[in-house]
Design a protein that fits this description.
By secondary structure, the chain is an alpha/beta fold. It folds into two domains: about 200 residues, 3-Layer(aba) Sandwich (Rossmann fold); about 70 residues, UDP-galactose 4-epimerase, domain 1, CATH 3.90.25. Helices cover about 35% and strands about 20% of the residues. A seven-stranded parallel sheet has the order 3-2-1-4-5-6-11, sandwiched between helices. The chain is globular. It binds NADP nicotinamide-adenine-dinucleotide phosphate (NAP).
Length: about 300
């Protein structure tokens, strides 16, 4: 009888595995890849994922990790992802959003392996949507500036980098990081008032769909790719959709405008992404109603 041969899986390094997107990505990729996931201040465990605790802003540690793990590919999701934090902590956020990203691209270039970067729709000012990949960047806050600089720096250091611009995301939470939908649903269930912008538009997707897009980019692409969702929707209408799908009619949704809420970081009005390039490569964009089914029940 012939012995069964098991082909070892390739090693995928996911930075930011404790984060919302990194955790969702690990769930999506772990059957196909042997995953090494990095964490920093939240040392969580993920089934089937080898966890490495590391400060990615420390180049020597990062280089050592690449040497030890010898990844076949890297998806870099780690970031200071809150624009208000970046606005008030420019130096700290720049280290992870810019420096660590360029270190990562450099090490991927040295190891000659694919590198995927999670950038953001916030590289645009939100005045001339929908945005295609070739639209000039025009950030209006420090977070958007740092991500735009990281894109440029990574592509310069390693032109084979796949820069994926992510939209607003929602979905299942990691043990350490939720998406905006969890507090939204909690407030609705408690019957509280929710003030939501009627003049802020996004093309949201779930963390699951976004992760599938990142894995597609890993296989197929270098350069820039937009991974937005199928529908352009305001925060208020998104709230209404969630309310109706979950049958939470007692919640009070109050329309408000961006100008009514003061925040450290300016908010672009309409960051809708044109993601037709990704769709032509095989990116699947479910409807929001389908994406939200996971929360029903
Ligand atoms: N969420 C969205 O709607 C959205 C929209 C557009 C783009 N993006 C982009 O998508 C990516 C993922 O976002 P997310 O929402 O998943 O972010 P997140 O939940 O805030 O997670 C950030 C991750 O980065 C890690 N990290 C931060 N500083 C680090 C450091 N110095 N060394 C090592 N790891 C560090 C965190 O580790 P610990 O928690 O363990 O410290 C965490 O795993 C980011 O690049 C973000 O800019 C997100």
């Amino acid at each position: 009888m012939k012995e069964k041969i098991t082909i070892p899986k390739k090693r995928l390094l996911v930075t930011g595995a404790s984060g919302f997107l990194g955790w969702n990505l690990c769930q999506e990729a772990k059957d196909k890849w042997d995953i090494y996931g990095t964490v920093y201040s939240h040392p969580i465990e993920i089934e089937q994922v080898k966890i490495i605790r590391i400060d990615l802003t420390d180049y020597d540690s990062l280089k050592k990790m690449f040497h030890e793990v010898r990844p076949d590919a890297v998806i870099h999701t780690a970031a200071a992802s809150n624009p208000n934090y970046c606005q008030t902590h420019r130096t700290e956020s720049e280290k992870i959003n810019l420096d660590a990203s360029i270190y990562t691209a450099g090490l991927c270039a040295d190891h000659k392996i694919p590198c995927v970067f999670t950038s953001t729709d916030s590289v645009f000012n939100g005045l001339t949507p929908p945005y295609k990949e070739d639209a000039p960047v025009s950030p209006i806050n420090i977070y958007g500036e740092q991500k735009a600089c990281a894109e440029e720096g990574m592509l310069k250091r390693y032109p084979k980098t796949a820069v994926c611009r992510m939209p607003l995301m929602f979905g299942l939470p990691s043990p350490a990081s939720a998406s905006f939908i969890q507090p939204m649903i909690k407030a609705m269930r408690e019957g509280g008032e929710l003030k939501l912008f009627t003049d802020e538009y996004r093309t949201p997707v779930s963390g699951k769909t976004a992760s599938q897009g990142l894995l597609l980019a890993l296989e197929k692409l270098s350069g820039i790719l937009h991974l937005g969702g199928r529908e352009r929707i305001s925060r208020y209408d998104f709230g209404k959709l969630v309310q109706n799908l979950l049958g939470l009619q007692n919640a009070v949704l109050t329309p408000c405008m961006q100008k009514d809420v003061a925040m450290p970081a300016s908010r672009p009005p309409d960051l809708s992404l044109d993601s037709s390039k990704a769709v032509s490569l095989g990116y699947k964009q479910p409807t929001l109603a389908d994406e939200l089914k996971v929360f029903v029940g």
